[in-house]
Amino acid sequence: MRNMCISLIVVGLMALNANAITVGLEEFTGDDASATATFTDQSGFVAIDLSVQHPSEADITGFWFDVADESLLGTFQVHSSDTLVLQFAQSVNNVNNLGGGVNLNGGGTPAPLDIGIRFEKPGDGSQLDVSFVLKSSTGPIDAAGLLDSDGEFGLRLQATNGREGSSKLFGPTRIPETGSTVLLLGMSLFGLGLMKRK
Description:
Layout: H1 2-19, E1 20-30, E2 34-41, E3 46-54, E4 59-65, E5 76-79, E6 85-95, E7 113-119, E8 129-136, H2 143-146, E9 153-160, E10 165-175, H3 178-197
Helix pairs in contact: 1-3
């Protein structure tokens, strides 16, 4: 019975990892800020959703991350239906400055990284969320295979603090996707209940 309980918990973790990976980011220079980046498996490509948690005014203007398979660099394509992508760069440990002040310069920077995307800047602090998809011309990709387990992430915020401030964030920390956490918690509690009955 104990083995069965452990198996249930492991299955929950596998289901969690199969759907999405969410990364937490915090500022390493500039205004106090936090954000998340969620990589979600779709049909052969990965949907990426960026969301500012704090402050309440900010424009997401750049995002960077490392990939697991560097041989795929040069094959990736970015598509967004709601945010204009101004620049997309991909090069092994060589991407930082994307122009227009969109860079990760400063003490504690994770840059240079493998991939960098620069987005249009509204300038009014309203661009708190950005969504886009990443595809590869070589074939299907998924979140778990895309991300380097030892890789780092970066995010550029502008138009913060009354539209006059800015921030640069980094994030090596991965946290569970909220929806999947419910599944994991439910299965874990079920397993613990069975162990107590044992």
